[in-house]
Write a structure and sequence with these properties.
CATH topology of the largest domain: Nucleotidyltransferase, domain 5
Strand content: 15-25%
Shape: globular
CATH class of the largest domain: Alpha Beta
Bound molecules: adenosine-5'-diphosphate, 5-O-phosphono-D-xylulose
Largest sheet: 7 strands, mixed
CATH superfamily of the largest domain: ATPase, nucleotide binding domain
Number of helices: 17
Radius of gyration: 22 Å
Length: 507
C-alpha cells in the first residue's frame, strides 16, 4: 500500500495528515505558532516556526499511524498564500516573513499600478489589481524601506515553497499559489516577464513554476532524517490553501462553489476559463487542477471577527471557558431571530479585500437600540461575516458563472447555526462533506496524483470525496436577510470617510 502526506502551513498553525491510496485519513496532527503584529495592520511570522511545526507534525502522524516510512511515496504542500520569505544567497532568512493579511504596502500597490500604466492594464497583465496582501508589493516595500535587506535579497518564496526548499533543496512554486504574487501571467500560467521588467525586478528572485500535481523533487538526506522518512519520498507542487481547500471539497468542475469560514473567509468557484472580473473585486487565479482556473472573493477577518468578539469582548464580560467559547456564544445567538433585531455588523476589523480592496476599512455595529444584548450582538457578528461572503457570491452570479452547488467548509461551517445562516443569507441550499479535512487533504490527494495513484485530480476527488448533509434555506429568514443585505451593502460607502479618518488616528 502507498501512503501520502498533506502538510498545510496555516496562519495559526500547521496541520499534517497521512492518507492511504484510497483517500482514508490514518493520522493527523497540528502544531501552533504565534503571529507578530509589530504595528496595527502589520503581520509577520518566523519561517523557522513553520519548519519546526512541519517536522513535529510529520513525526507525530508517522508515530500514530505506524506506517513504514518506505511506503510514504509523496508529500503535498499547502499554505497561507501571498506571504514573503526573503532569502539571501546562502538561503538565510533575512527578516521575518510578511503575511497575507499585512496591510503596510498601500504605497507600493500604487507604484505597481502606475508602473503597469493603469489598474486596467495591470489586470490585463496579471488578471488582478494590486492588493496590499499580495507578494509583489511586499518585495517593493522591502526595496523602499529596508534597502540593506533588499541588497542582500537573492530569492523570495511563498510560505509553503520555503518548506519545499528545506525538504528538497529546490526553489519551485506552483501555479495556484504563484497567482497570488501578482507577478504571474495567470492566463499563460507562467511569470509575467512584462510586469517584472516594468517593476525592475530580476526574474532570478523568483522560483520556477509548475502545475500543482507535478513532482518538484525528492527529500534531501538531511530532511528525510529529520522527518523520519526516506530520500525516495517525492514532493509535488501542492497548492495555495484556498485552491487546496477547494480540492479537499471536490470543487474541480464547473458549477461547484465552496465557502470557507476560517480566520479568513473565502467564496471559491471553479472555472474552465480564466474569467476575469473587470472591476478586480474577485481574484482570478490558476486552479490546482491542470489547465483550469478559479475565481474567489476573500474576506480578511471572517471567522476571525467571531474570534475577536468571543476572545476580546465576550470572554472578558462573561468568563466563558475558552475551549467551549464558540459553541457557548453561538448557542446563545441561536435564540435570537434572524436579523438580530435589525442590528448590522461590518466585519472589516483589519481592512477588507472583496469587494472593497480597502486596507483602511474598519468594523462597526450599526443600528443598536436598547433591546440589543450580548446574544443579539453575537448573532449580528455571524450575520455580518455571512453578508460579506454574499457580497462575493453576488459578483460571481453577476458575471454569469453557473452556481449549481455550494459546499460549506472551514471552522465556522462546523456550526449548525452557521450552516443554516449561510443557506438563509445566500438563499440557496448548502451542502457539507461527510468528512471535511481542508487544505491538507487536498494536497495529500495531489501527492497521490503526482505519484500515479490516480490519473487526475478530478478522478481522485470522485473516488474519495462524499457529500453528506444538505441545509435548505428557511423562507422567512431568507426574506429578512434579503431586506437587510442592501442596507449592509450601503453602510460601507456611507461610513468609508469616517473609517479612514479613524484608521489614520490609530496608525
Ligand atoms: N464551534 C464553532 N462554532 C462557530 N464557529 C467556530 C467554531 N469553531 C471554529 N469556529 C470559527 O472558525 C474559525 C477557525 O476556523 P479554522 O478553519 O479552524 O481556522 P484557520 O483559518 O485559522 O485554519 C474561528 O475563528 C471561528 O470563527
Ligand atoms: O489570503 C488568503 C487567500 O487569498 C488567505 O486565505 C490566506 O491564504 C489564509 O490563510 P489561513 O488563515 O487559512 O491560514
Amino acid at each position: 500500500m502507498s501512503y501520502y502526506l498533506g502538510i498545510d502551513i496555516g496562519t495559526s498553525g500547521t496541520k499534517t495528515l497521512l492518507i492511504d491510496q484510497s483517500g482514508k485519513v490514518l493520522a493527523e496532527a497540528d502544531a501552533g505558532y504565534p503571529m507578530e503584529q509589530p504595528r496595527p495592520g502589520w503581520t509577520q511570522q518566523d519561517p523557522e516556526d513553520w519548519w519546526n511545526a512541519t517536522v513535529k507534525t510529520v513525526r507525530a502522524v508517522m508515530r500514530q499511524s505506524k506506517v513504514d516510512k518506505n511506503d510514504v511515496k509523496a508529500i503535498g504542500l499547502s499554505g497561507q498564500m501571498h506571504g514573503s520569505v526573503f532569502l539571501d544567497a546562502q538561503d538565510n532568512v533575512i527578516r521575518p516573513a510578511l503575511l497575507w493579511n499585512d496591510q503596510r504596502t498601500a504605497v507600493q500597490c500604487e507604484s505597481i499600478t502606475s508602473a503597469a500604466g493603469s489598474r486596467e492594464e495591470l489586470i490585463k497583465l496579471v488578471a488582478n489589481p494590486a492588493l496590499t496582501g499580495f507578494q509583489a508589493p511586499k518585495i517593493l516595500w522591502l526595496r523602499d524601506n529596508e534597502k540593506r535587506n533588499f541588497d542582500k535579497l537573492a530569492k523570495v518564496l511563498l510560505p509553503k515553497d520555503d518548506i519545499r526548499r528545506r525538504l528538497t533543496g529546490e526553489y519551485v512554486s506552483e501555479v495556484s499559489d504563484a497567482s497570488g504574487t501578482l507577478l504571474l501571467d495567470v492566463q499563460a500560467r507562467n511569470w509575467s516577464t512584462e510586469l517584472l521588467g516594468r517593476l525592475q525586478l530580476d526574474r532570478s528572485l523568483l522560483p520556477d513554476v509548475v502545475e500543482s500535481e507535478d513532482v518538484t523533487g525528492k527529500l534531501t538526506a538531511a530532511a528525510a532524517k529529520q522527518l523520519g522518512l526516506t530520500t525516495q519520498c517525492q514532493v509535488v507542487g501542492g497548492a495555495g490553501d484556498c485552491a487546496a481547500g477547494a480540492i479537499g471539497n471536490g470543487i474541480v468542475r464547473s458549477g461547484l462553489l465552496s465557502t470557507s469560514i476560517g480566520t479568513s473567509g473565502v467564496m471559491f468557484v471553479h472555472s474552465d476559463e480564466p474569467s476575469i472580473d473587470a472591476a478586480g473585486r474577485l481574484h482570478t487565479f490558476c486552479h490546482a487542477v491542470r489547465g483550469k482556473w478559479h475565481m474567489m472573493g476573500v474576506n480578511l477577518t471572517s471567522g476571525g471577527s467571531l474570534q475577536w468578539w468571543v476572545e476580546n469582548v465576550i470572554q472578558g464580560l462573561a468568563g466563558v471557558p475558552a475551549a467551549k467559547s464558540f459553541e457557548a456564544a453561538t448557542a446563545e445567538a441561536a435564540g435570537v431571530p434572524a436579523g438580530s433585531g435589525s442590528l448590522v455588523f461590518l466585519p472589516y476589523l483589519n481592512g477588507e479585500r472583496t469587494p472593497h480592496a480597502d486596507p483602511h476599512a474598519r468594523g462597526a455595529f450599526v443600528g443598536m437600540n436598547l433591546t440589543h444584548d450580548r446574544a443579539a450582538m453575537t448573532r449580528s457578528v455571524m450575520e455580518g461575516i455571512t453578508f460579506a461572503l454574499r457580497d462575493s457570491l453576488a459578483i460571481i452570479e453577476s458575471m454569469g458563472v453557473p452556481v449549481r452547488q455550494i459546499r460549506a467548509s472551514g471552522g465556522g461551517s462546523k456550526n449548525k447555526l452557521w450552516r443554516q445562516m449561510q443557506a438563509d443569507v445566500f438563499g440557496k441550499k448548502i451542502t457539507t462533506l461527510k468528512v471535511e479535512q481542508g487544505p491538507a487533504y487536498g494536497v495529500a490527494l495531489l501527492a497521490a496524483v503526482g505519484d500515479g495513484a490516480y490519473k487526475s485530480i478530478e478522478q481522485a476527488c470522485k473516488a474519495t470525496i462524499e457529500v453528506a448533509e444538505e441545509t435548505k434555506p428557511d423562507a422567512k429568514a431568507k426574506a429578512t436577510y434579503n431586506e437587510l443585505f442592501p442596507i449592509y451593502r450601503d453602510l460601507y460607502g456611507n461610513l468609508k470617510d469616517s473609517m479612514h479618518r479613524l484608521a489614520e488616528l490609530s496608525s
